[in-house]
Every structure is written in structure tokens, then in C-alpha cells.
Model the fold of this input.
Amino acid sequence: MMDVDAGGWTVSESYRNAAAFPPDMTEALAARIADIAAEAITGIDPHTGLASDFLNQFNEVLMLLEVAGSDPALHRDLHAWCPRDYVEHFEASQLRDSALVIAAYTLAPASVRRRFDRLSGDLSAFILNGLAELRPLEGEAARYASEALAERIRRRVESLSAIIHPAERRLDNDTISALFKQAR
Done:
């Protein structure tokens, strides 16, 4: 199958049952995470113990990149953006169930947490580097570079979302084609 790694980002992964739990998820752990997920208002995926609300900080950058071209006053907000790791994000949030979200994260299988933390850290660094490269640009060059950066961020956010919600993972055309070839 096709695993193409581009700077730590899996472009296409081998197919496996998307609803399957990670190999290091025990039944007891799955039951505890499911209990927390059922109690929480914030959506926690019971397969991973992660909540997609974490992605809001990256979606904020996307929104600012999309409108900063038409409103230069937003450049200050864009360049003041500072990433937070998962726990920091939920500790600083106004969510009343943030303690439950953090508890589920600490119970998440180590394989999921390691991959998620690595990719979210890589994304944070990627965004900060991209924003630094945008700083000296103006006019049409700035608009074009902002659009390109936004698209690259969007793809990486989708990859993080696929880790958070593996049962909702969307397959790209290359993966679907490879699956049909393998099935023949």
C-alpha cells in the first residue's frame, strides 16, 4: 500500500478498519474513555480519547489568513498567534468540561498521543515559520503566499482530524484506487 511521508505527514496510509481501536487500547481503557466521552459535553472520540475542539486554534489561523488580505488590521492578530499543546489549550479554554477532555487525553493510547502530539507540534512550527515568511510580503505577493499557506495548513489540520476521529477518516482518490487494485 502507499505510505508517502512528506516531512512527517502521511499523505496516504494503508487501509485498515477505520473503526478499529489502536493496538495498544485495552478493553478497560476503551471503557474508561467511553465513560468520559459520554459524560463530557465536548466531543471526545471514544476510539482515541481526543477532542477536535483542539483544532480550533489552527482553524483560527486559517480564518485570519483568509481575511487578512482584505483587512490589513488583522495582520497584528495573525502574527500574534501563539500555539498551545493539547493540555495547555484545554486548560486555557472556557469549556466547563475541560478537565474531562484532559483526563481522556491522558488515558489515550500512547501510540495515538505520540503521533498526535508530534504532528500537532510540527503543525505549530510550520505555521509559525509560514507566518514569519509572510511578514515582509505586501500586496499581491502577500495575498498569494497567504492563500498557499492556508491550503497547506488546511491539509495538515485534516490529517490531525483523521487522527482524532479515525472512524470518520476520508480516503483520498489514490488510496481508494489502491484499495480497488488490492481487492482484485
Q: What stands out?
A: Helices lie at 27-39, 56-68, 75-80, 86-92, 98-107, 110-134, 139-164, 173-183. The CA atoms of residues 62 and 150 lie 6 Å apart. Strands lie at 5-6, 9-10. The mean pLDDT is 82.
